[in-house]
Amino acid sequence: MFATGTPVSNSMSELYTMQRYLQYNTLVKNHLQHFDSWASTFGETVTAMTLAPEGDKFQIKTRFAKFHNIPELMTMFREVADIQTAETLKLPTPEVEKHNVAVNATQIQKDMVADLGERAEKIRAGVVKVWEDNMLAITNEGRKLALDQRLINSQLPDDENSKVNTCVKNVYEIWEKTKDKKSTQLVFCDLSTPKSLGADDNPYEMELVNGIWKCKEREFTDVYTDMKRKLIEQGIPENEIAFIHEATSEAKKEELFDKVRSGEIRVLMGSTFKMGAGTNVQDRIIALHNLDCPWTSANLIQRIGRAVRQGNMNELVHIYNYVTQGTFDAYMYQLIEQKQTFTSQIMTSKTPIRSMEDIDERALDYAEIKALATRK
After folding, report:
1. What phi and psi, each to the nearest 5 degrees, are found at residue 294?
2. Distance between CA atoms of 210 and 207, rounded to whole angstroms?
3. Strands, DSSP E only, in 265-330?
4. Which of 93, 119, 213, 336 has the fewest CB atoms within 10 Å, measured from its CB?
């Protein structure tokens, strides 16, 4: 018996793997046991440039663009699949209150988005080589820009109303209000993860400035360290804030999780990859903050599932989604909403569709970038 919460986490092609394990004879009977045959029957592929796993170079990747004959595919799959959703199971999980926090882009961010649009025009016109600039590079810079303009240039000013600073304010206010219950919070951010520090390097060293204790001034390096410094300055003890990246072994990870479950650590920050599936710290979680938007709807579901699950003593959990207006943020959330609609319609058979576009991690195209760049 197989049991999974995400049989289709990113692409419908994952169903082929499930079918190979669970109904190989059925695939043979329909001459679909070879992936090429299955793909030609149910899918349509395109080849495009993507970011390599290392994050510092590009690679050519073939992915599915569309899927066809969906009713037949799901009829076959349902011979071996008993699909249950949160709506049908009605598990005793906390209620959810969502907060979509939209902040205004700075003039610098607006100008940079416009510059990305000009770069897209040059790429479309063919006046630059693919290794000099490309849509994927623009997309990744656009995502960083939406998170914090200092990720593009560390010398740029720290906007007090940025979504990073807005998140800091919300985390501190919730921390203060829930002191008596020792409630905990999760902050998710896949971009700008913490840098490795030397043995003698302490970015949270305090000094007295005009009668106020502040962390010693340092150059901006990453969003994680920046947020922790600001939370410490607000008054949260350093030992109550942790990064999932600090747990470098399974033993250290379990020790960290124990401290979160007991409320000894009240703010845990991490990426979806490191703090998603398998992170069971839900006992006291009162709020979850999505500082950036992941590429897949499954990743967003995994994030939310860290708090909205059985065993949470809170009856209500607050989910904060932070968006910088006029940047790539809005597009990213629109993209994963389409992905979730795609997956949910397939798995629940709510819509009798025959064909559907498969939305995979990809670069924005020229029209999408220009729409963002020219938006008032």
Report:
1. -70, 170
2. 10
3. 267-270, 285-290, 316-324
4. 213
